[in-house]
Design goal:
- It is a single chain.
- The protein has one domain: P-loop containing nucleotide triphosphate hydrolases (Rossmann fold), CATH 3.40.50.300.
- It is 32% helix and 10% strand.
- Strands 1-2 form a two-stranded parallel ribbon.
């Protein structure tokens, strides 16, 4: 995936979701292919099934984790308040 500027940013939080994971016999993309694509795109990955309510909430949680990770400064910048 080519890096594109979206709203002035180099990176946008994404979660790649393999949908309908309950339909095993109709699988088109393997778990390994999904994970590899997510790694290539530098995003979170999961499989979900709305029918069985499996990982539906996790999709949103993973996206929020990506956003929090992007908006949280590295530990070396977390030094608390400095009063002078």
């Amino acid at each position: 995936m080519n890096q594109r500027l979206i709203q002035g940013r180099d990176w946008v939080a994404m979660t790649l979701v393999g949908n309908k994971s309950d339909l095993h016999m109709q699988r088109v993309i393997s778990v390994e292919e999904g994970k590899a694509l997510a790694e290539e795109w530098n995003c979170a990955w999961t499989e979900a099934s709305a029918r069985h309510n499996k990982n539906v909430t996790k999709c949103f949680e993973l996206c929020l984790e990506q956003i929090e990770k992007e908006n949280t400064p590295p530990d070396d910048e977390k030094k608390g308040c400095i009063i002078t």
